[in-house]
Design goal:
The complex is a heterodimer of chains A (113) and B (115). Chain A is mainly beta. Chain A is 0% helix and 58% strand. Chain A has no helices and eleven strands. Chain B is mainly beta and 115 residues long. In chain B, the strands form two sheets. In chain B, strands 2, 4, 5, 6, 9, 10 and 11 form a seven-stranded mixed β-sheet that branches. Chain B has a four-stranded antiparallel β-sheet with strand order 1-3-8-7, with no helix packed on it. In chain B, a hairpin with a 2-residue loop joins β5 and β6. The chains are: A mainly beta (113), B mainly beta (115). At the A-B interface, β4, β5 and β10 of A face β5, β9 and β10 of B.
């Protein structure tokens, strides 16, 4: 049973507009959430995180929002740039098991010129 | 070398072959991981080594055998694989036990094809 779900396999957004990537989870005990970005032929790289006690974290063009009641988080990228075209993975983890995180399937983001 | 390196980057093997994947981390981390990424599936955690001790084995078939001789090196030994084992195998490392955020650093992966 998937604990972290990314239901959109792909998303296309015009350059300069906002990209919104969504993630749902089933386990209310997760302590933190992460977003990773992956280019072809490279491993995933860490992008941004959010603690379960917060509802927003911002880092430059990237903002992650957490809605605990809905068990939903989203990654906003604004403005979207061509270099943002990649696969984005949502992940979740526990403070008392800091050697393990659980990933979603990923969403492929295409930034259109 | 910096970060996490993996060799080989590509591997094609028959079902009767024995091969090994190698991972090395140059970050001074104490935990290393093997993940499998198949098309249209989540990243699947296979094995976790924390301070060289295996702490996780997610019901991985015995045809995959991990080895962690020290905190910087991790191997995945492959034997009598099946075509459905074809996937991207990713290695990662992290500094476990220092904070709630387990930022894992990934290698580029080995693209494995089993014929």
């Amino acid at each position: 049973d998937q604990q972290v779900k990314q239901n959109s396999p792909s998303l296309s957004v015009q350059e300069g507009r906002i990209s919104i990537l969504n993630c749902d989870y089933t386990n209310s005990m997760f302590d933190y959430f992460l977003w990773y970005k992956k280019y072809p032929a490279e491993g995933p790289t860490f992008l941004i995180s959010i603690s379960s006690i917060k509802d927003k974290n911002e880092d430059g063009r990237f903002t992650v929002f957490l809605n605990k009641s809905a068990k939903h988080l989203s990654l906003h990228i604004v403005p979207s740039q061509p270099g943002d075209s990649a696969v984005y993975f949502c992940a979740a983890g526990f403070n008392n098991r800091d050697d393990k995180i659980i990933f979603g399937k990923g969403t492929r983001l295409h930034i259109l010129p | 070398e910096t970060g996490v390196t993996q060799t080989p980057r590509h591997l094609v093997m028959g079902m009767t072959n024995k091969k090994s994947l190698k991972c090395e981390q140059h970050l001074g981390h104490n935990a290393m991981y093997w993940y499998k990424q198949s098309a249209k599936k989540p990243l699947e955690l296979m094995f976790v080594y924390n301070f060289k001790e295996q702490t996780e084995n997610n019901s991985v078939p015995s045809r995959f055998s991990p080895e962690c001789p020290n905190s910087s090196h991790l191997f995945l030994h492959l034997h009598t694989l099946q075509p459905e084992d074809s996937a991207l195998y990713l290695c990662a490392s992290s500094q476990a036990g220092t904070s709630g955020y387990n930022e894992q650093f990934f290698g580029p992966g080995t693209r494995l094809t089993v014929l």
